[in-house]
């Protein structure tokens, strides 16, 4: 079982005694920078000239300098720019500003796990990854609560890297909820697998295939949309609150019976065998290599897939139907 850590296990004064640079001020960056500051930590935000986020960070009372200046001033550097550009930001702004005894922090293990960033031996390399979007992380902190975090140490140069990471997690409210110890490898591989096989890839493909099956059989797209996409939220909310058990308790006995007998005909042994292949390609670096190549080539296939799905009848039907539902918030 996982090891859990709470407020009493973490010493906030450790991070209060350091100088922290938060590079990036997006979903995670704004939550980390503001909550660390409110926890009495010396924080500066690193953003390039012309960054859209700069005005926002300054309005919220933070000092903004360039990423290189932030890395030079600080002895704890948290990299919260998008994963595909972290290696470039590291090469250009961080690498030459690292001194022995500094610590390099991440919110996701991708660049370390796949050797895109190779920090020198004298620095601690840690991860503090909240298990929730940045806006929830910040809101929970402000309300005196926290979002659970996972924490890992890849390189313990100081001998105290885990204490430092726990202290940072306390600074953003993570230890109020609970912190789970993991490794960069476990976090990165399970995160990629989850989003590809289940949460994003698996769920979108399931919804699309169900919708297409009904429409190809002559049913109205509007009805197919409600059955295969809209109602999914209800089911997922029940699972989130009480697992499969609560979902099955809440739906009709007919739906529950259909779940037992039909589910395994849809997600079959062949599907699970493919999941194992997907996991293998994550573990051996194939997925990461292909994705970084695609990104560096200007995202040709990514844009093609995006366009194709944007024009799909499921999406055009949904755009129309959501206008009928005043309670559905279509804001990004
Ligand atoms: P966002 O896309 O929300 O934010 C990116 C930020 O980086 C923006 O402020 C952007 O500024 C800035 N930026 C872009 N280029 C540079 C640069 N060259 N130098 C400095 N800053 C730059 O990122 P996320 O918060 O989603 O992700 C950050 C990290 O957190 C990733 O590692 C991600 O995997 C991880 N994570 C994200 C979660 C989430 O909820 N989103 C959850 C857990 C982990 P500009 O305004 O100019 O574009
Ligand atoms: Mg992810
Ligand atoms: Mg029904």
UniProtKB/TrEMBL annotation:
Active site: 108
One Pfam family cited in the UniProt record for this chain: KARI_C
Transmembrane segments: none
Residue sites binding Mg(2+) 2 per the record: 191, 227, 231
EC number(s) stated in the UniProt entry for this protein: 1.1.1.86
Residues that hold substrate according to the record: 252
Group of enzyme by EC: oxidoreductase
Domain named KARI N-terminal Rossmann: residues: 2-182
This protein's pathway: Amino-acid biosynthesis; L-isoleucine biosynthesis; L-isoleucine from 2-oxobutanoate: step 2/4; Amino-acid biosynthesis; L-valine biosynthesis; L-valine from pyruvate: step 2/4
The reaction(s) this protein catalyses: (2R)-2,3-dihydroxy-3-methylbutanoate + NADP(+) = (2S)-2-acetolactate + NADPH + H(+); (2R,3R)-2,3-dihydroxy-3-methylpentanoate + NADP(+) = (S)-2-ethyl-2-hydroxy-3-oxobutanoate + NADPH + H(+)
Statement: the UniProt record of this protein carries the keyword Amino-acid biosynthesis: yes
BP terms from Gene Ontology: isoleucine biosynthetic process; L-valine biosynthetic process
Named cofactor requirement(s): Mg(2+)
Binding site residues for NADP(+): 25-28, 51, 53, 134
Superkingdom of this protein's organism: Bacteria
GO cellular component entries: cytosol
PROSITE patterns named in the record: KARI_C, KARI_N
Name by which UniProt lists this protein: Ketol-acid reductoisomerase (NADP(+))
Organism field: Streptantibioticus cattleyicolor (strain ATCC 35852 / DSM 46488 / JCM 4925 / NBRC 14057 / NRRL 8057)
């Amino acid at each position: 079982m996982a090891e859990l850590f709470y407020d009493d296990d973490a010493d906030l004064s450790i991070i209060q005694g350091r100088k922290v640079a938060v590079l990036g001020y997006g979903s995670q960056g704004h939550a980390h920078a503001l909550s660390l500051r409110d926890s009495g930590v010396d924080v500066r935000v690193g953003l390039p000239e012309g960054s859209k986020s700069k005005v926002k960070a300054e309005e919220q009372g933070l000092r903004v300098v360039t990423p290189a200046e932030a890395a030079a001033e600080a002895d704890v550097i948290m990299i919260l720019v998008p994963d595909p550009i972290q290696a470039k930001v590291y090469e250009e702004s961080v690498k030459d500003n690292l001194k022995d005894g500094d610590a390099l922090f991440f919110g996701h293990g991708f660049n370390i796990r796949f050797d895109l960033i190779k920090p020198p031996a004298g620095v601690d390399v840690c991860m503090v990854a909240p298990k929730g979007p940045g806006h929830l992380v910040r809101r929970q902190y402000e309300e005196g609560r926290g979002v659970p975090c996972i924490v890992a140490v890849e390189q313990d140069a100081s001998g105290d890297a885990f204490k430092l990471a726990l202290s940072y997690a306390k600074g953003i409210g993570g230890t109020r909820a609970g912190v789970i110890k993991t490794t960069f490898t476990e976090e990165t591989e399970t995160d990629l697998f989850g989003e590809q096989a289940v949460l994003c890839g698996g769920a979108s493909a399931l919804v699309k295939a169900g919708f297409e099956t009904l429409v190809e059989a002559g049913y109205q797209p509007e009805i197919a949309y409600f059955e295969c996409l809209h109602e999914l939220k209800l089911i997922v909310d029940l699972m989130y609150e009480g697992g499969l058990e609560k979902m099955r308790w809440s739906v009709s006995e007919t739906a529950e019976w259909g779940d037992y007998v039909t589910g395994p005909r849809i997600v079959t042994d062949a599907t699970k065998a493919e999941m194992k292949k997907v996991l293998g390609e994550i573990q051996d670096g194939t997925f990461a290599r292909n994705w970084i190549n695609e990104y560096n080539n200007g995202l040709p296939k990514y844009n093609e897939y995006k366009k194709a799905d944007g024009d799909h009848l499921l999406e055009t039907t949904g755009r129309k139907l959501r206008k009928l539902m005043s309670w559905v918030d279509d804001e990004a």
